[in-house]
Design a protein that fits this description.
By secondary structure, the protein is mostly helical. The chain has 6 helices and no strands. 27% of the residues are buried.
């Protein structure tokens, strides 16, 4: 599954600079793809292709996060804000092993709902940062 990471990083770098998607749009698109792949795991729980697509989407979204987050924050708070975001992600990551204790359909449903919610929140709550002046 690690073979999906390098193409994800390349795709993220290309999509984040496109005029049609931009950084926020490409991040939302990667999260939406992760939601679709996770929801598809309800039907095909053991599919390595869906696992690879999920890995691709999450890696792509994560790489765009590292570009978008500092550009949304004012200069005085940029490093502290990025550190707070990273810390909160690590804290939420502590819950990840417990998701595997759920039945496969509940695991896939929880992942799909979370990814879709983040995709929607990303698109609606954040302004596009591509080509914009830093705050």
């Amino acid at each position: 599954l690690a073979a999906f990471e390098i193409p994800a990083y390349v795709a993220a770098a290309i999509l984040a600079e496109t005029r049609s998607l931009g950084r926020v749009g490409s991040q939302a698109a990667f999260f939406a793809l992760a939601a679709v792949a996770s929801a598809s795991r309800i039907v095909l729980p053991r599919s390595l292709v869906l696992a690879g697509v999920s890995r691709f989407a999450v890696c792509g979204a994560f790489s765009v996060v590292w570009n978008v987050t500092p550009e949304l924050l004012p200069t005085a708070f940029r490093s502290a804000g990025l550190g707070a975001c990273s810390c909160s992600a690590r804290l939420v990551g502590l819950l990840a092993p417990f998701v595997s204790l759920l039945p496969p359909s509940a695991d896939a449903t929880a992942s799909a709902v979370a990814a879709f919610a983040v995709a929607l929140l990303t698109k609606l709550a954040f302004r596009e940062t591509r080509g914009a002046a830093l705050p």
